[in-house]
Amino acid sequence: MGSSSIPNGVEQQKQEKNLAKGAWYDTVDFLNLLLVIIIPIAGCIAAFWTPLYWQTFIFAVGYYFLTGLGVTAGSHRLWSHRSYVASLPLRVFLALVGAGAVEGSIRWWAKGHRVHHRYTDTPKDPYSIKKGLIFAHLGWMILKTDSKEKVRTDISDLDSDGVVVWQHKNYLQLVIIMAFIFPMVIAGLGWNDWMGGLVYAGIIRMFVVQQSNSLSHWLGDQPFDDNHSPRNNLITALVILGEGWHNFHHEFPSDYRAGIEWYQYDPTKWVIWIWEKMGLATNLTEFRQNEIEKGRVQQLQKKVDIQRSQLNWGIPLHDLPVIEWDDYVEQSKNGRQLVSIAGIVHDVSDFIGAHPGGKQIILTAVGKDATAMFNGGVYDHTNAAHNLLSTMRYAVVRGGMEVEAWKRPEDVRVPTDTLGNLIVGPHGQETRQL
Ligand SMILES: [Zn+2]
Ligand SMILES: [Zn+2]
């Protein structure tokens, strides 16, 4: 967890300049350019004169799921986050289909991903959404990062996993076999469609799998935390086998689930669960529900507080002018339509005509202490009535009822929300006397 390699702002600017100034061929990863841009374009062109057979189509969709799982259940949830333990046969399977996804070796992918979680939204985030959607989508695979900007992460666990090391050492051969030769051979031997197997189940399928992660920091809502960019979204979940519930994932990365609700589409989670039933996976990690709900409630609270701040709750008591009782009576006699309830004086002149109980009854309260009358003496007013009354506040009476105590702004009896605004609950209006 050492942070000694964090460069200061000036160094970072220099690095960015160097990257911009340097010869373009120094900054481009040609192998990835070939695999991510050139071969897919060639495949799309070849598709124009390659007929698509229905067997090949079904196989390509199935193989898309398998190779996608190599990344989502393999490189991501198993090797980056250790959210479950996989047996040797399962790890070999994931390493093979993962190579067919052509998103980099497990070792390379998981290392970058650990950096992504640790430095989300900062310049050290290898696929930072702050560098734009195109960079976060494909640019990060094609452009080499300046070596000085590379961040140290602990991947000793990956280096001691024989399957990971083997896949990393033989990555290019495995890519050629798993991404192109294997689907070509299956379609060729199966229903004599060698070319369709290569173009559709090989190249175009690979291209679709590669269009993965970036939208999850761009599109959707944030039910668990909005301090960073990760978002929850069904569309992203549909494209990348359930990885789109990314706001939850960044909060609870060691959870083998990304979509925690039963109705959230997360086939990666379902498959890991099935592997557990088959005895291939163990130790599936679930974050404690209590902690998950805490995050959800805090985020809900934040949204409620924003809504609260947009409403008119009346002038806070401690901001009202203080008047003497005699002054209140005097002003009422001289034509002001003021009503004192619980020591708080309200100007009801704009409301008299709209009073549901009639004009007359409210006029009898002018210039008097109407506390008992308002709180059940004549009619036990609703919460809505107390809320409405608070918007008519005019002054507080010195020594009137117990309001002097409420006038102190440091009063701890009054709860405030995360924005510092008063929380007035359904029975919290000061005019309510039980
Ligand atoms: Zn992310
Ligand atoms: Zn992750």
TrEMBL record:
Record membrane topology: Multi-pass membrane protein
Domain Cytochrome b5 heme-binding: 320-398
Annotated signal peptide: none
A molecular function (GO) term: iron ion binding
Matching PROSITE patterns: CYTOCHROME_B5_1 (PS00191), CYTOCHROME_B5_2 (PS50255)
Coiled-coil regions listed in the entry: none
Record-annotated membrane-spanning stretches: 30-50, 56-76, 88-110, 171-191
Free-text comment on the cofactor: Expected to bind 2 Fe(2+) ions per subunit.
Record EC number: 1.14.19.1
One Pfam family from the record: FA_desaturase
Cofactor(s) it depends on: Fe(2+)
Enzyme class: oxidoreductase
GO cellular component: endoplasmic reticulum membrane
Any one Gene Ontology BP term: unsaturated fatty acid biosynthetic process
Subcellular location: Membrane
Keywords associated with the record: Electron transport, Fatty acid biosynthesis, Fatty acid metabolism, Heme, Iron, Lipid biosynthesis, Lipid metabolism, Membrane, Metal-binding, Oxidoreductase, Transmembrane, Transmembrane helix, Transport
Catalytic activity entry: octadecanoyl-CoA + 2 Fe(II)-[cytochrome b5] + O2 + 2 H(+) = (9Z)-octadecenoyl-CoA + 2 Fe(III)-[cytochrome b5] + 2 H2O
InterPro entries: Acyl-CoA_deSatase_haem/ster-bd (IPR009160), Acyl-CoA_DS (IPR015876), Cyt_B5-like_heme/steroid-bd (IPR001199), Cyt_B5-like_heme/steroid_sf (IPR036400), Cyt_B5_heme-BS (IPR018506), FA_desaturase_dom (IPR005804)
Family: Belongs to the fatty acid desaturase type 1 family.
UniProt function note: Stearoyl-CoA desaturase that utilizes O(2) and electrons from reduced cytochrome b5 to introduce the first double bond into saturated fatty acyl-CoA substrates.
Protein name as it appears in the record: Acyl-CoA desaturase
